[in-house]
Design goal:
This is META domain-containing protein. This protein is mostly beta strands. It folds into four domains: about 90 residues, Sandwich (Immunoglobulin-like); about 70 residues, Lipocalin, CATH 2.40.128; about 90 residues, no CATH class; about 110 residues, Lipocalin, CATH 2.40.128.270. It is built from two helices and 37 strands. The strands form five sheets. A nine-stranded antiparallel β-sheet has the order 21-20-19-18-28-27-24-23-22, with no helix packed on it. Strands 29, 30, 31, 32, 33, 34, 35, 36 and 37 form a nine-stranded antiparallel β-sheet that branches. Strands 1, 2, 3, 4, 5, 6, 7 and 8 form an eight-stranded mixed β-sheet that branches. A hairpin with a 2-residue loop joins β36 and β37. It is globular and about 65 Å long. The relative contact order is 0.09.
C-alpha cells in the first residue's frame, strides 16, 4: 500500500468520523399573546440547509403545557443552515419565530426564541414532502396547492373516509389528502414522500415586484406595502388582507391598492431576466404591470439533468447535472467527476465562477464531455426557462446548456 493511498484512506476515515459527530441545541420558545395553548398544540423546530433540505427536526406535543416551553434538538456537528421554531394547532402554524442562522460558532444554548402570530400570505399551511415544500390555502371551497416546483393548482373537495381530500378536476392522480398534522400528496399519479406540517419559507423575506415604462417597484414586508415610482412620492400602505383567487392568484390588499401575483413566468422587458410570477398592481384607477418574485426561486430546489451541451448533445448513458443552492453555490456531476462553483445572480444576469472538480480517471469520451461542459459553464451570462420547463443557460451567442428538472429527488 502506497504512502499516498494510506494518507487518502486516513483522510476519508477522518471525514466520515467528523460527519458522524453530533451536537445538541437547546432553547425556549414563548410568545407575548394572552392566549392559552390548546391540548393539541405542537411545537416544531426545524433546521434547513442552504439547499432547502431538512437536516434536523424536533416535533414536541405540548399536551397542555404553556409557554415558555423548552426544546432540545440533536443534529450533525457539521450542519450549517437556518433554525426556525413554531407552534401549530391542527394543520396550521399559528405562531412562528424568526430564522436563526446556525454556523460553527453558534452557542449550544440559543436562549429565548420569541414567536409571533403568523400572518400567511395567501397560503395557510406548508408541508415538507421529502425535499419538496408544498403550500396550500383556500379560495372559497377550493384548495389551492403550490407544488414547490412552480405549479399552482386549484383542487376541488372529494369524499374521503377520513380527513379532507381534494382532487384536480379531470386528474384524480393529482390530489391532496390531509390526515391530522400530515398529508398525502400525489402529482400526476406519483405519490410524494409522506408530508409533515412545516413552515412557509416564502414568508421569511420581503416580496419584490416591478416593471418598466413607467418604472415602478413594490415591496411587501412586515405587513407593509411600499410603492416607488420615478418622480413621485413613495406610497406606504399597511397590508389589510391577503388571500387566494379562484385561479390560484395571490392577492395582497393594502388601502386602495391591490397586488395580484399570478403563477405565470414573466421576463423583465429590459433585461430579459425571468421571474416566477406575473404581477399587476392596481392603485385607484391606475394599473401597473410587471414581474415579481425572486428569479433564484426558478433555479433552487430541483436537480437539473443536462440534455444538451453547446448543441452537441451528451454521451449516451452519462448523467450530467447541476443543482443550485441558496448560499451562492452550484454543484453537480460532469458525467464522471463531481464539479462545483460559485454562482452570482444579479438583475442583469447569471454568471458562474471558475469551476473546480474531483480528479477521477474517466473514459476518453467522458473526459472530453466534461471539458466541453465546464468550458460552457464559464461562458454563461444568463438563464431562461423555456416553454417546456427546461432550464437554458445561455451566453452571448445563445444556448450553452439545456437541462430538465429530474423527476426523482436524488442529489445532483
Amino acid at each position: 500500500m502506497s504512502r499516498l493511498f494510506t494518507l487518502l484512506a486516513a483522510l476519508v476515515l477522518a471525514t466520515a468520523a467528523a460527519a458522524q459527530e453530533t451536537r445538541s441545541l437547546t432553547g425556549t420558545v414563548l410568545y407575548r399573546d394572552r392566549m392559552a395553548l390548546p391540548q393539541e398544540a405542537l411545537l416544531i423546530v426545524e433546521v434547513i440547509d442552504a439547499a432547502g433540505a431538512l437536516r434536523a427536526e424536533a416535533r414536541l406535543p405540548t399536551e397542555g403545557r404553556q409557554v415558555p416551553i423548552p426544546f432540545r434538538l440533536d443534529l450533525a456537528a457539521d450542519v450549517e443552515g437556518t433554525l426556525r421554531a413554531g407552534l401549530s394547532i391542527g394543520a396550521e402554524v399559528v405562531w412562528l419565530g424568526d430564522p436563526v442562522a446556525l454556523g460553527p460558532d453558534t452557542p449550544a444554548d440559543l436562549g429565548e426564541l420569541v414567536l409571533h402570530r403568523h400572518q400567511p400570505t395567501g397560503f395557510a399551511s406548508a408541508f415538507l414532502c421529502g425535499d419538496r415544500r408544498v403550500m396550500v390555502g383556500f379560495a372559497g371551497e377550493a384548495l389551492v396547492m403550490d407544488t414547490g416546483r412552480g405549479d399552482r393548482l386549484v383542487l376541488q373537495s372529494f369524499p374521503a373516509a377520513s380527513g379532507a381530500r381534494y382532487e384536480l378536476p379531470g386528474d384524480p392522480g393529482t390530489s391532496f389528502w390531509t390526515r391530522g398534522e400530515g398529508a398525502l400528496v400525489s402529482l400526476g399519479g406519483t405519490n410524494l414522500p409522506d408530508c409533515r406540517l412545516s413552515f412557509p419559507m416564502t414568508d421569511t423575506t420581503a416580496y419584490r415586484a416591478g416593471g418598466n415604462e413607467p418604472f415602478w417597484s413594490v415591496t411587501v414586508e412586515a405587513a407593509t406595502l411600499t410603492l416607488v415610482r420615478l418622480g413621485m412620492a413613495d406610497v406606504v400602505l399597511p397590508v389589510s388582507a391577503t388571500g387566494l383567487g379562484d385561479t390560484g392568484d395571490i392577492m395582497v390588499m393594502a388601502g386602495d391598492a391591490t397586488l395580484r401575483r399570478q403563477p405565470v413566468l414573466c421576463r423583465d422587458s429590459m433585461t430579459g431576466m425571468p421571474h416566477p410570477e406575473t404581477v399587476t398592481l392596481t392603485l385607484g384607477a391606475e394599473t401597473l404591470a410587471g414581474c415579481g418574485g425572486d428569479p433564484a426561486a426558478l433555479l433552487i430546489g430541483p436537480t437539473w439533468v443536462v440534455e444538451d451541451i453547446a448543441g452537441a448533445g451528451i454521451v449516451d448513458d452519462s448523467r450530467v447535472s447541476l443543482g443550485f443552492f441558496g448560499d451562492g453555490r452550484v454543484a453537480g456531476s460532469a458525467g464522471c467527476n463531481r464539479w462545483f462553483a460559485d454562482v452570482a445572480l444579479t438583475g442583469e444576469g447569471l454568471t458562474l465562477g471558475q469551476a473546480g472538480a474531483t480528479m477521477m480517471a474517466c473514459a476518453d469520451a467522458l473526459m472530453a464531455q466534461e471539458m466541453r461542459f465546464l468550458e460552457a459553464l464559464a461562458q454563461v451570462t444568463g438563464f431562461d426557462i423555456d416553454a417546456t420547463g427546461a432550464l437554458v443557460l445561455r451566453g452571448p451567442e445563445g444556448a450553452l446548456v439545456t437541462a430538465r428538472a429530474a423527476t426523482d429527488s436524488s442529489a445532483p
